[in-house]
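Re: export button greyed out
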Amino acid sequence: MMVGSKVDYDINDLYIPKDNKGDINYQKSFIASLTIIVKDKDGKVIKKYKQKSHSPTSNFIGLMLPLTWYHETGNSWTITNTSNSTSSYTPTITGNGGGVIYPNSGYNNNDYIVNILVGSGSQSNSYNAHNLNAPISNGSGTGQLLYSTLSTPTNITINGNQAYFIISQTYTNQSGSTITISEVGIILNLITEAASSYSPSTSTVVGNTLVWYDVLSSPISVANGQSITIYYTFSVNA
Amino acid sequence: MLVSEKIPKEDLDYILEPFKEEDNKKEEDNKQIISEKIIAIVRDAKGKIIDKREQKMKSLTQYYLALMSIPILGTYSYGSTNTATGILTNVLGLPSNQSIYNDSAVINFDTSIQLGSGTQSFSLTLKNLNAPISNGSGTGQLVYYSQGIQYSGNFISQLLTVSNISGNTITVSEIGLLGTIYIVYWSSSSTLTATPYNYLFSYDTFSSPISIPNGGSATFQIIITFSG
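Workaround output, generated via the alternate export path:
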């Protein structure tokens, strides 16, 4: 319960960082990284590559905004899927409720990570990216890579002063030619809805949604017969 | 089908190896994805600013990382069953499958700032402030006003204003970002239930304690910036 009279002038002191993008000296509390390991057809490691990952997309940000922001502003968030279709997202704990679907004993429409999508293009505005610029499809035809099953974590690992989880996927080139990977993204099959949804017809199936996107600092060439494993690591550090 | 596989040790060693200078030749490679800062502005009873602080925030907990897993991994463990991901159940203690009356269930969350007068060492599994300052006008209390959140471009700013009418100076030495995750569902034909699960998402101590005089007020901000 609030008591006393509100001191409303302090809100005018709201500090807006002018350009936090340029400040690289902040304590690195959160780190995401991208690790790539290329192997030849015999499984021998022939290249290792690692870079910091930079880019949650606008879709990700909307899902990370707290309820208070939605309640205060009255705004919804526009989520755009990989087919460029938009959906409005407004979480709430009142009315009929709203948010991301959660496993339950009634109606389910699964919200889950689909894959780590790789591509051969690039785009500069990762915040507004809704898909990879030039996705590489799954297969053994020209320009394709064979996507293996995605590996997902069942827990957060704590190792010393670091807590992390890792997602990984392996791709094999059986296309007959070298394929170059230059962009990577995480695709989520996103389902948002009200708790009063009775069936698939009343839930919002956003569908395949790009939530994280990176352009590789150095494109990786995968020769025919080679395989490549991509690891996304998300960590916080004490 | 999605599966969880053991990562080969040699790969894991390389993944967890700290970045070397040669791994990040471009300036862009060293940009922070998420950076955080804390700002405090203290005023006396007449509204005059008597203290200003700005410091880097250092300490996100594993619970914030688990929250971030929702827009990355989703809520379902994999596409063919109706169970929550291991991170949601193992780290956050959420139910594997929420029992409901009918229809469906959803998940969302909110955050708030908590101030405290103690200190403690940070750990990734920290759950509470050492000595939280409660809301009120009694001895050792601060009046917490409703909290605001702004989002602009690339940062989320959480703002808290407090005033001290306790009769004595109050010293603030620790600050935390509290998180509440809600699972929302119909528990009967007429009752929408939002079950709260509470966490500490971040914890920091001030480099030197902040004193709020009686009659004074203070604004605290936690800013989380996504580089994009």
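The CA atoms of residues 24 and 54 of chain A lie 12 Å apart. The button fix ships in the next patch.
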